[in-house]
FAD-dependent oxidoreductase (Pararhizobium polonicum), 424 residues
Amino acid sequence: MATLPLKPHYSAVVIGGGQAGLSASHYLTVHGIDHVVFEKKTVAHKWKNERWDAFCLVTPNWQCQLPDHPYDGTDPNGFMVKDEILAYVDRFVAKVDAPVLEHTAVTALERHGEFFRIETSAGTVTANTVVIATSLYSEPAIPRAAERLPEEIMQIHTAQYRNSGQLPEGDVIVVGSGQSGCQIAEDLHLAGRKVHLVTGNAPRCARFYRGRDVVDWLSDIGQYDITVEQDGMTKKKHDTNHYLTGRDGGRDIDLRKFALEGMALYGRMSGVAAGRMLFEPNLKSNLDGADRVYNGINALIDRHIAAKGIEAPAGSPYVPLWEPEAETMELDLKAERITSVIWATGFSPDWSFVGLPIFDGNAYPVHRRGVTAVDGVYVLGLPWLWTWGSGRFLSVGKDAEYVVGHLAARLSAEEPALKKAANA
């Protein structure tokens, strides 16, 4: 990875040195466009520093399709574990050899005449174009209710969780049942810890169905090629990911099964008061909603198999293994020996440095396939930027190729005007 002195001007500036920013750098190099990548921490920081020890991919290895760097191992249908993922990413970093300035935070992005002005902790530069590749996962999102928990309870976010051994003895509450929350709850459960899981409306998906990984079926059906602009897909960019796991070769995550094994389940957290955590009475609807999505995906596969006349083992709808007898509305933390809380409540983006009109009323960047309304400004690495695989190893490269192609065309179109101005 190159480390170059800061120049006063670049044709393109990339903000963010994760998989999206590096993919953009790859294609900028292919197009011969001079650029720099500013990374607030270190390249691929989140993969290296914000994953727990037992972390593994949720999608099969064959979906790792970074630019000119497809999965190169011997188990395409398996699920790489943390060390294997880091090695895969490190090989990509070395291959791209991006001009990255690490530990360089961008503090302001503004229009500056015909160019853009980018203020950073290392100095100020201008650029013809800017690619914002900071994703939606900049800062851990922790609800204000956390401030009302008893001081003696240890609190960490999923970004800080590594294994059960870092937590004090006693029961653990995991707040949030998305991918990370469910997988960490399982990790603690397998380690013999008493887990209390606070659920939300996250959907779930089968790992295997009718003889194959569900991801393989969905790929054949064309689900990963559906764009966000197609009917009914507009809201997908804000959807929570389905929960399942690739651990130990891959399996379903069934919260009802965990309940039978002693895990305590609750509805969505509504607050904290007087040493008690409070819940909404929606545990049953959360579980039913997740199972409805699970069965809906399997039904889609059933229809595909029937339409194509494919020979496959028989399938059947999921039947609940357990039902909550009553909705628990509050939990006395001291009485239940709760000593730690893990916030699996997601992340918040940090767009504070962007001084350009690219956002909607919800502070989300408005774009079409990464191209914003501000000519020369692009976004990359967002979930459902264009397809289901956007923001992930599967399609972030395709998104970057399109964005940089648009950027390159823009630079080519403006080059004669810039030369004319320079010679005037």
